[in-house]
Design a protein that fits this description.
This protein has helices spanning about 1-40, 75-95, 115-130, 135-145, 155-165, 170-175, 180-190, 220-225, and strands spanning about 55-60, 65-70, 95-105, 205, 210. By secondary structure, it is of the alpha+beta class. The protein has a five-stranded mixed beta sheet with strand order 1-3-2-4-5, with helices on both faces. Helix 3 packs antiparallel against helix 4, helix 3 packs parallel to helix 5 (about 155-165) and helix 3 packs across helix 7 (about 180-190).
Length: about 230
């Protein structure tokens, strides 16, 4: 009788041990999954005009590639758009280049905690995924309404209003939830850094794989380089 009771106790102990091991394995797997989820690229915008590997929003179908890395809080990016935008659009229109726009976020620190750069870049992806043709008009409109560096930036409601002016609606949840914010952060880290520079700068312009030294002259910097 005592031996039977002893066997029952032993089996109970064994099953308890197995249960503990299984629980530890589950917890470990959960921790790994949570760490992967928190450090992963987040939700990726899915559209034919958006490269999920590079984050590029492509405009045009030219044989040459012109990649621009921009931050919507960056005043120099705005100056770049004013000085180079028309020339670049002309090169897109005549089939000379494919423009790859990379909305990144390096100036969140300059928006009093509202993370404007990330929110604006996220909105750019929301717009591009909803309507490819609205990508450049939205970018231009965002610069026309660019907030001062160091301010809180535009609200999500104001950004949605700008999207509406270029014909894009129905992206409220995408903008308000920051759907692609983690994707923006991941793509920002992939921004090429000019040799000798201390870190990522905006705008960064890359023509056919080579970083362009901007002089303020789009003809010399881009057009002549294509010839």
């Amino acid at each position: 009788m005592a031996q039977k009771q002893q066997r029952k106790v032993n089996w109970f102990a064994i099953w308890i041990s197995i249960g503990v091991v299984v629980a530890l394995v589950v917890v470990a797997a959960l921790v790994v999954w949570m760490n992967s989820a928190s450090s992963g690229p987040g939700e990726t915008p899915k559209a034919s005009n958006i490269n999920s590997e590079t984050g590029a929003i492509s405009v045009g179908e030219g044989s040459n590639t012109l990649d621009t890395y921009i931050d919507f809080m960056c005043p120099i990016c705005n100056q770049f758009e004013q000085s180079y935008g028309e020339t670049i659009q002309g090169l897109v229109d005549d089939g000379s280049v494919t423009l790859n726009i990379h909305p990144i976020s390096i100036l969140d620190r300059a928006s009093q905690g509202t993370e404007y750069s990330t929110r604006a870049a996220n909105a750019m992806y929301c717009v591009a995924a909803a309507d490819a043709e609205a990508s450049v008009p939205f970018m231009k409109a965002m610069y026309e309404n660019q907030p001062q560096e160091g301010s809180t930036g535009l609200t999500d409601e104001q950004i949605l209003g700008i999207a509406k002016t270029v014909g894009v609606t129905g992206i409220d949840d995408c903008v308000n939830s920051g759907r692609y914010s983690k994707f923006v952060a991941t793509m920002t880290e992939k921004t090429p850094v000019k040799e000798g520079a201390s870190g990522i700068g905006t705008p960064t312009v890359v023509l056919n794989g080579e970083i362009v030294d901007l002089t303020g002259d789009p003809q010399a910097d881009i057009v002549n380089a294509l010839q």
